[in-house]
């Protein structure tokens, strides 16, 4: 280590030591209580907390809080469910897209058949009108007997 690095390291250590001493002389009990409270909360978050039950009535005052392992497991299960649902939605979308393609193709086929049959339908309609007119004329003639 060169002298500049040693000077910076010793100066930083002195500043940290001065801060710790200053903090220790100013309300050290409150600082220790705060630190212990934070430590307890961190342990509770990792390990979990049992339910708080009233000793006389047996009523549950606060529910149990699971530890980080149980919460992580439930999150992993939720993610797996989301992945499965996403896959199912993608499959349904693919089927729906295929059905839309088939419907569009069918619509195009029907249009093509209609266009092909229109001239024939005109001829058939003309023949039907001719037959109807002939039948009407025959009904109008008096019966010869």
**How far apart lie the N and C ends?**
140 Å
Percent of sequence in beta strands: under 5%
How many separate domains? 2
Question: Which class of secondary structure composition applies to the elements?
Answer: mainly alpha
Morphology call = elongated
Q: For the largest sheet, list the strands in their spatial order.
A: 1-2
- How large, in whole angstroms, is the Cα Rg? 45 Å
* Unreliable sequence segments: none
**How would a textbook summarize the main sheet?**
2 strands, antiparallel
Please bin the fraction of helical residues: over 70%
| Number of helical elements | 3
Instruction: Sketch the topology as an H/E string, one letter per element.
Output: HHEEH
Q: Tell me the number of strands.
A: 2
Mean pLDDT across the residues is 83
Multimeric state of these chains?
Answer: single chain
């Amino acid at each position: 280590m060169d002298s500049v690095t040693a000077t910076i390291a010793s100066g930083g250590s002195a500043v940290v030591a001065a801060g710790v001493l200053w903090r220790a002389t100013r309300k050290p009990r409150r600082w220790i209580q705060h630190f212990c409270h934070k430590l307890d909360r961190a342990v509770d978050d990792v390990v979990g907390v049992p339910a708080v039950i009233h000793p006389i009535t047996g009523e549950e005052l606060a529910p149990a809080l699971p530890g980080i392992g149980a919460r992580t497991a439930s999150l992993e299960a939720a993610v797996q469910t989301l992945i499965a649902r996403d896959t199912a939605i993608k499959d349904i979308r693919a089927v729906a897209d295929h059905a839309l393609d088939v419907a569009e193709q069918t619509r195009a086929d029907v249009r093509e058949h209609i266009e092909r049959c229109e001239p024939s339908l005109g001829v058939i309609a003309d023949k039907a009108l001719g037959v109807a007119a002939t039948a009407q004329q025959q009904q109008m003639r008096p019966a010869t007997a």
